Amino acid sequence: MYSQHLYSQVPGLRSPDRKSHWPNAEESSIHDHRPLYNLLTALTTTPHNIRTLDLSFHIHLLRDAASDPTRFSTFLAALAPITNLNLAVVTPPPEPNYIDDDFNYADASATSTASYKAVLRTGALGRLVSAARALHRLKLNLSPDGQRRSGHSPWRFDVPLSAYVGDAAADAAVWSGLRYLYLGCVDARADELAAFVAARRATLACVEFDRCALTRGQWAAVGAVVELGCARWRWMKQNNLAQVEPKARTVAVLPEVVESARAEGRDDVPVEVEADGIYFEAKDEMSTIMSGWDDE
Known about the structure:
The chain has ten helices and twelve strands. The protein has a seven-stranded mixed beta sheet with strand order 1-2-3-4-6-8-12, with no helix packed on it.
């Protein structure tokens, strides 16, 4: 009851069945984070059993990590008990109303991109997301409108995976029980992403990459970890994936995936696979593949 009350009363907090993404413009602004912080303060000062949060906010809220660390620490504390996190960090294009005759749209767009990159490079988002140390489900989306599978991602942020997920990028003990992973409109290197997935291969069942780009490496290398390493995977989904490098004919399977399979007595995991035989691929389409496994 408490969580449903919060969903209906607090701008910036969305319930799963809410139809419109943003509150009515007359009621609140995406740049007004006071209602969200009021909620976060309540979550850290009032006993509750809430373990699921569905939040949307403008990326510039993350500047509070430097400008108002005390207030930002409230956000970190509020996420600590959360096990199911749906976070839409909105990265909108420049608003036409704020573009004058002497400053064209292209210049404004470049300024927005640089601003967003600078915020991400501070590591504030990674600190925030990894504050929830025991996640079972993570949906992290940095799309311009905050929506999943909506349009295209207009830019790359060129930051390491840790900028998005904090120390979970390198520490397998963080989110060791992760079962569901959705990443939207982020970019990373294939080796980072493959290692991140491989570290949670014992539990991951559902993996989705939405409008994501690889700044180095092959999507097939990431897909091979899921298909060959995640013994309980149920489905994978992709939407408009991209990569900088040309598609390779073959990709190496992560050594830890091969070694783990052999330790289990499996000889069906090769050290190298044909890229065309792996699901994840840089292409402009949306699709889903099911494994047939169902452990629920």
